[in-house]
């Protein structure tokens, strides 16, 4: 059994998210001495570095003359004059970055296609939904597995536009895949409902994990002690605006801060919203540079809040529980699937309900302790080792078919 995992998501993500899934699985595959290769070397990915397998040089470094360098110059000019970049530019940073690396990415794609044609690998696991490999795969004996993380692009197309490559490619890739992994039953149900042409017999559910309990205890040196915590991307369906509105009402009754970590600094529109709500001295942002730092943000928070309208799984739920931070999240189906009775739930479209639930947890010590206790129990149901083992079973099954 020889497995190749491609590069797509490592050019897409910076920290956490889908890239974390593959890093966790890769580590365990290698610990089990399973033959697995990545189309780029990801050993230094935590430092933002991807290495070319052939030249051993960094491959995700835009040239001195590139669109991304122009973007960074514009960003510095805005910062120099004390302005924030326009939101439409911030949202396009990753696209500009990838466009500036298009020659490097094209080179990697060519290597992957050649390896598929050579049948050097029994399993191909692309990490996202570009379709560069389809012609090569059609002429290869290699079996393809694809992971569906969510169906947010189909369910919220207004945030992505009709030209989004995921909307163009997902159905076809799922139809030709030899096996599909969904990260929750909710995602599986959405996928099969949206694309009835996809055979349900080849779809498996493999849960993710999110245990930060082994991370070292460090200090974040924040200028305050009591805070509510929001983690990750804040755009669109992440529903950050409802949290801001609820927090503005809460601040009339409670002296507490809101800390947002990851997801990039506040956009111009977010800054305006924060100022208009009179929250300029109580809403803060911080970057995430390591899992240890992220664990510390959770450990020291009074409450972790996850207000999304939709998710495919929800790793932050488990991360928070694993280090004893109580969870308050949207009453969406997938969060019940992951968090069970170890979280408190609110209506994600009702800031008053969110405010009331926050206040209830902050004021009722027994409720907070119950959520923490049940969180420790709940997180035991999810394991990266189990996640990797279930991937291996699918890889082995398809490899045997390949051998036959």
Automatic annotation (TrEMBL):
Residues 226-375 form the Glycosyl transferase family domain. Keywords: Transferase. Residues 16-209 form the Glycosyltransferase subfamily 4-like N-terminal domain. Gene3D superfamilies: Glycogen Phosphorylase B. Signal peptide: none annotated. Pfam families: Glyco_transf_4 (PF13439), Glycos_transf_1 (PF00534). InterPro entries: Glyco_trans_1 (IPR001296), Glyco_trans_4-like_N (IPR028098). The keyword Cytoplasm does not apply. This is Glycosyltransferase family 1 protein.
């Amino acid at each position: 059994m020889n497995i190749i995992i491609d590069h797509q998501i490592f050019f897409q993500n910076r920290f956490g998210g889908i890239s974390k899934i593959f890093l966790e699985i890769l580590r365990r595959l290698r610990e089990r001495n399973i033959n697995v290769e990545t189309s780029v070397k990801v050993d230094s990915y935590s430092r933002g570095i991807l290495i070319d397998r052939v030249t051993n040089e960094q491959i995700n470094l835009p040239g001195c003359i590139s669109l991304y360098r122009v973007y960074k110059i514009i960003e510095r000019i805005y910062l120099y004059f004390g302005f924030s970049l326009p939101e439409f530019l911030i949202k396009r940073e990753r696209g500009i970055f990838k466009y500036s690396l298009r020659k490097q990415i094209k080179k990697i794609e060519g290597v992957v296609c050649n390896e598929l044609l050579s049948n050097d690998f029994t399993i191909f696991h692309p990490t996202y939904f570009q379709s560069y490999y389809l012609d090569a795969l059609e002429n290869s004996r290699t079996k393809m597995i694809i992971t569906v993380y969510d169906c947010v692009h189909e369910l919220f197309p207004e945030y992505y536009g009709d030209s989004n490559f995921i909307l163009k490619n997902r159905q076809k890739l799922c139809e030709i895949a030899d096996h599909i992994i969904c990260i929750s039953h909710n995602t599986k149900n959405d996928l099969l409902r949206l694309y009835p042409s996809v055979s349900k017999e080849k779809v498996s559910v493999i849960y993710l994990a999110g245990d930060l309990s082994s991370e070292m205890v460090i200090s974040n040196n924040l200028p305050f002690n009591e805070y509510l915590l929001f983690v990750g991307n804040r755009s669109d369906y992440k529903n950050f605006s409802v949290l801001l509105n609820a927090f503005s009402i809460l601040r009339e009754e409670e002296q507490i801060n809101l800390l947002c970590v990851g997801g990039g600094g506040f956009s111009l529109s977010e800054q305006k919203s924060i100022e208009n709500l009179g929250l300029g001295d109580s809403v803060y942002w911080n970057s995430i540079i390591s899992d240890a730092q992220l664990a510390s943000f959770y450990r020291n928070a009074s409450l972790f809040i996850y207000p999304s309208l939709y998710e495919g799984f929800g790793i932050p739920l488990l991360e928070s529980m694993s280090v004893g931070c109580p969870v308050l999240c949207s009453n969406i189906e997938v969060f019940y699937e992951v968090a069970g009775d170890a979280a408190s739930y609110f209506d994600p479209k009702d800031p008053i309900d969110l405010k009331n639930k926050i206040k209830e947890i902050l004021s009722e010590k027994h409720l907070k302790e119950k959520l923490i206790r049940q969180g420790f129990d709940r997180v035991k149901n999810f394991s990266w080792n189990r996640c990797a083992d279930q991937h291996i079973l699918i890889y082995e099954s398809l490899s045997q078919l390949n051998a036959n």
